[in-house]
Specification:
By secondary structure, this protein is of the alpha/beta class.
Length: about 300
């Protein structure tokens, strides 16, 4: 009797299993992460690519120039090593031609030592300031072990990494500051008629210095300083930059309340498109020298 009951429901069980397998194959699991998408991006020559890596409450910016040379600006926290190294190796990057540590805070130079150990390094740029933290000492040790030297970054320096490309260092402008954030290297990358302004954690004091020097701050894309803190991105500075896009690199639920509502309010008031790594993951721009295209997240 029991056998007859089982024999009657067995075909139904088989049918349900078949339907389950069919649905799984048609609708694979969506993790909601952009990392897989960004890792599949194919970088082509004649274009400039700027990628803001999602490293949580930290900064890491990957730049591929039209001739294939590479720049890396900051390297996240100490525990971001795997993410950054994996991203670079997936894209078959073996050499970092220009490596920048904008200032010696852990959320900017945390994995810099790992980058130095894992890749061939061209030039290293850092501001003229030191700290006693283990993170900073680890970076110096890596530089020493690889027989590399630090090029001290200061305002007025220019680098020409490729044809029609210019990198300008716009800050720091003073010899000393009370706040380490103001030692931040501020880097403007220009490719023909397009430009990116990358500001590290520069505070309003550094912004005032750049304005007083009458630097050309206009840029299509602004990396909002200090993860969107209200101590940066003054209205006068923002008007001088007048970007189309503002990128904020921060981690959800951080202890600092970044990005601050005052900064977001300014960006909204000026009708600047806001993109955050916390919301979108890796953010990738492509420039052909005339137009900037948002690759990830997908532009509408």
């Amino acid at each position: 009797m029991q056998y007859k009951k089982i024999s009657k429901i067995l075909p139904l069980i088989i049918l349900l299993l078949f339907l389950s397998l069919l649905l799984t194959s048609c609708f694979p699991e969506n993790t909601g992460s952009l990392e897989d998408d960004s890792s599949n991006i194919v970088f082509s020559n004649d274009n400039l690519y700027v990628t803001f890596l999602d490293v949580g409450q930290a900064d890491c910016i990957f730049v591929r120039f039209p001739d294939g040379k590479i720049a890396l600006i900051d390297a996240g926290n100490n525990d971001d090593e795997a993410k950054i190294v994996s991203f670079l190796k997936r894209h078959k990057i073996y050499k970092i031609d220009y490596l920048f540590g904008t200032h010696p805070h852990e959320d900017h130079i945390g994995s810099l030592d790992s980058i130095i150990y894992n890749f061939e390094i061209g030039k290293i740029f850092m501001p003229k300031v030191t700290t006693t933290t283990k993170t900073f000492k680890d970076v110096l040790e890596a530089i020493s072990k690889k027989n590399l030297k630090i090029t001290v970054a200061k305002a007025g320096m220019e680098i020409a990494p490729a044809k029609d490309v210019k990198m300008e260092i716009l800050a720091p402008n003073s010899q000393s500051y009370e706040d380490l954030n103001n030692y931040s290297i501020v880097l403007k990358i220009t490719y023909k008629n397009t430009s990116f302004l990358l500001t590290g954690d520069a505070e309003s004091l550094s912004e005032r210095e750049m304005l007083s020097k009458k630097f050309n701050l206009k840029a299509d894309v602004l990396k909002v300083a200090h993860h969107g803190s209200s101590s940066s991105t003054s209205l006068e500075f923002l008007k001088a930059v007048s970007p189309k896009y503002a990128v904020i690199s921060y981690g959800k639920g951080n202890d600092y309340g970044h990005p601050h509502k005052e900064t977001i309010s300014k960006l909204i008031k000026m009708k600047i498109k806001i993109l955050t790594t916390a919301e979108y993951g890796d953010i990738i721009f492509k420039s052909d020298g005339e137009f900037i295209e948002l690759i990830e997240p997908k532009s509408n």
